[in-house]
Amino acid sequence: xxxxxxSIREFIDNQGIFVxxxxxxxxxxxxxxxxxxxxxxxxxxxLDFFEHKxxxxxxxxxxxxxxxxxxxxxxxxxxxxTASYITDEPTKSEIKNSIIQKITKENSSPKAKSLxxxxxxxxxxxxxxxxxxxxxxxxxxSIGSDVDSTSLFSS
Length: 155
Known about the structure:
This protein has helices at 6-15, 53-60, 91-106, 110-116; strands at residues 18-23, 29-34, 37-39, 44-48, 63-70, 75-86, 121-132, 142-145. The chain has four helices and eight strands; from the N terminus they run αββββαββααββ.
């Protein structure tokens, strides 16, 4: 598992949003923005309030890609890894409550408040490889990996 450096964790937190890409049985990529999340050194957690495409896709195929980008600075990162749902209590409630507390403190919109009151699943994403999305850098070379990143794309 890739350790997420403090600078990249801070970058993700500062953006306040990232996009999750999943693929299920249809072979079409589903892209879904996430604002209810927390980033730790070895995992990214987010809340899934809906049992729609991402939820179903992760159950079929746990391989997920996360992208986060700052358009002003043309800086960003992409993580590839695996996602799973946390079901054990009290871990699930602790993570969920910490995410809701953080996000509702930062985002006082009625939509965020409404979402925070819904039932949700807690997703744990464990990154296996990280790439820079900065246009001036080599985006096909990983900046952190616990696997041979070239083998991730072999058939």
